[in-house]
User: Which sequence fits this backbone?
């Protein structure tokens, strides 16, 4: 009886180990894949956006929705002008069209902040900086 009980226990353990895939090699994860989804959006684009906007005060961040909103930033060299930026990461893949930047600019006229146009080159430059930084972060992850 004792021997039968021992055989049954060992048999059930062997089956449970086999059911868990014991002995099979698990596929290795590519940590530097272009699609990293531990958050709702691509983590390289998210991190690159935060790094790029680190000099500005952040008002709101939502990593699941992929939205970063800064508060108004006044450049110490040009105190009659301020800028507010919204970055939206649109996808889980590291792609050029997966990030969108929108900016608001105001100038101080007679003590009142008045809306002013933002040059398209400014928004394009911010997108380029974010994409370059995201690629650099991915390359660093691949190298390690």
Assistant:
């Amino acid at each position: 009886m004792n021997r039968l009980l021992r055989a049954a226990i060992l048999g059930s353990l062997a089956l449970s180990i086999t059911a868990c895939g014991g002995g099979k090699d698990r596929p290795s994860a590519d940590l530097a894949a272009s699609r990293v989804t531990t958050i709702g959006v691509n983590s390289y684009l998210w991190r690159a956006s935060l790094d790029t906007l680190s000099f500005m005060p952040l008002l709101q961040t939502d990593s699941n929705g992929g939205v970063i909103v800064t508060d108004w930033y006044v450049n110490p060299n040009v105190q009659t002008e301020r800028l507010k930026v919204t970055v939206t990461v649109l996808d889980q893949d590291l792609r050029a069209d997966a990030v969108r930047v929108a900016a608001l600019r105001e100038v101080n006229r007679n003590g009142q902040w008045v809306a002013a146009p933002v040059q398209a080159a400014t928004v394009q430059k911010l997108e380029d900086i974010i994409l370059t930084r995201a690629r650099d972060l991915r390359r660093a992850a691949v190298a390690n």
